[in-house]
Each structure stands twice: as C-alpha cells, then as structure tokens.
C-alpha cells in the first residue's frame, strides 16, 4: 500500500496536453452568456447578483483546466464552497446556478491532466467542499451516497482516459523502438558486410599489386562492385524512410533469400566462400527466407573481419523436419585470450532469430576458426 501511495504521489503530468484552442474560447464565451441568462431568469435567488457574477467569473478558469489543472479545480470548487457557506448563512434551500456544474469538468481534467501530487491535493479539496455542500443542503444518506458516486464517476472517467492515453503512447514508443532496432540491424548488416568485403579486398590488393597486377585489377573491380551495391542498398533504404506512404519500387523489391546466397561468394584473393544447401528449401516463408540470408551475410562478415588466416568460409543451410539449420564456419585461427563480449552483429543476429522463434549461437569451433549456428522454424504460425 505504501508503494502504491508513493507511486501515485510521484506520478508526473501526462505529456502532450492540448493547448487552448479557438473552440475552448468559444465554449467559455457561450457558458458566460448561459450563466448571465440563468441569473437574470432567477431574480429570487438568494444573493442573486453575487452568485451570477461569481458564475460568470468562473467560466474563464476552464481555459486553465489542462495547463493548470489543480489551480483551476481549486478555484472552481472554492467558488462552490463559498456558495455553500452563503447558503448556510442565509438559510436558503438553494443558492446556486445550474451553470456552476462546470466544476465537474474541472474535476475530470484534474484527474486526466494533473500530476500525482495535484490529483491527491485536488481530490482532498473536492471531498471537503462536497461534504460542506451536503451539510448545507441537509442531504439525506441516500443523497450523500448518490452524490459521492456521481463525483466518483467523473474521477473514474478521468482515470480511464488518462490510462488509455498512457497505454497508447507506450505502444507508440514500443513500435518506434522496434522500427529503430530493425533499421539498426539493416544498416549494420548491409553496410558492415560490404565495407568488410571492401577492406579485405583492398588489403589483398596491396599484396598482389606488385607481383600479380592482373589479380589486383580484379580485386579493384570487386571493390567497385561492392561500393556500387552498398550505395544502391543505402539509397533504397533512404527512399523507404523518406516515403510517407512506404511505397515505391524499393518497398516492393523482393528481399534476398536462400536462393541468393551465391551472391556472397568472394573474388579470388580473398577467403573463398562455399555454399552448401540441403533439403527442401524452396517455399519457405519470406521472413524466414530473408532472415537466413541476413544471418549468413553477417556470419560471413564476421569471418572476413575477425578470422585470422582464414582461406575458406563455408555456409551450410539444411532443412530438418520443421526447422531450418544454418551454419557458418571458417578455417581461421581462434583469437587468443578471453572471449570478447557479443558485438552489434551477433546482437542483431540474435534479435532477428528470436523474432521468428529461433535461436543463434556463436563461438570458437573445436578445430579452430569460428562457428555460427542458427535454427529457425520452417513455418510461421499466425
């Protein structure tokens, strides 16, 4: 209970409160006129001029109901308390105007837009004023219970709309975070793969440029091709981000899958890439097919960047029952020393697999080199 009270007390104001609009000002003007007409129509009301003037002066407070909910509520319900005191002093059975019921709107907006401290203080003040009003009206037990439930209705409405708005904003943040993570994975997988291939090719070219200029020229051509593909994929991604409708040719371009793994083979002078496919790999769901390609691409990137002295990278994909297994291995030397923390590439691979209900493991192989194993479901259950 203490934790709940402390949580309520520390609750901040909800974000994105709407500013005062032209419709708000028009509403206040209409309510001022209504209060004036009602006061003139009831000349026998106790304290009629004061009550009418008080009601008319109260209406502009509605403009503060979102920006200063506690102040607006205290002013509105303070006016109601003043009328109750006037009613007790005059002995009148009725000293209020129906237009003063707008203070119920202030009660709603207090709960909807106030902070935890403001809501707590405001509800205590409202309860005191309501008790004073019940005493002034000599209300029966049934009237006290009915009036209390009526006030709680507005409190509940404010809490419900506050919770719904909070839930919507939280879901919106979650969607944005998922989109941000997906974009980060795509950028890393695309750019890191091609840049790693360019770096490896450039290093090999420096070795071959003197003794084997023909092979060095082939490596330069592969660097140009990798750079062009990187630029094309980056343009497609930027086009998707800039397109409000998410349309365009890039949006409908088919994603690469298992059938495109041969595009990952490297030119001479760099670690050779061997592709081995087994089992029924056609007809896989598009998310699974695309994820297999991305996982293989990132596994190859890790080998290109980190494998010491590797001459061959093997990418194996096979279907076993209702699962698809991917393995990326190289014949490089395992790095000495303690195992490094997972980098962005392995983190992105793990996230991709988990989104489909699969898993990824990576570590040194028993015979050296590095091994990446991934298991994905061959079917996606809606």
From TrEMBL:
The EC number(s) this enzyme carries: 2.7.13.3
Domain of life: Bacteria
Broad EC category: transferase
KW Phosphoprotein (keyword) present: yes
Domain called Histidine kinase/HSP90-like ATPase: residue spans: 291-379
InterPro entries found in the cross-reference section: HATPase_C_sf, HATPase_dom, Sensor_HK_TwoCompSys, Sig_transdc_His_kin_sub3_dim/P
Annotated keywords: ATP-binding, Kinase, Membrane, Nucleotide-binding, Phosphoprotein, Transferase, Transmembrane, Transmembrane helix, Two-component regulatory system
Entry GO CC: membrane
Ranges where the Signal transduction histidine kinase subgroup 3 dimerisation and phosphoacceptor domain occurs: 179-244
Catalysis performed (reactions): ATP + protein L-histidine = ADP + protein N-phospho-L-histidine
GO molecular function, one term: phosphorelay sensor kinase activity
Pfam families per UniProt: HATPase_c (PF02518), HisKA_3 (PF07730)
TM ranges: 47-64, 71-89, 95-113, 120-138, 144-163
Cross-referenced PANTHER family: NITRATE/NITRITE SENSOR PROTEIN NARX-RELATED, NITRATE_NITRITE SENSOR PROTEIN NARQ
Protein's name in the database: histidine kinase
Organism: Nostocoides australiense Ben110
Classification lineage: Bacteria, Bacillati, Actinomycetota, Actinomycetes, Micrococcales
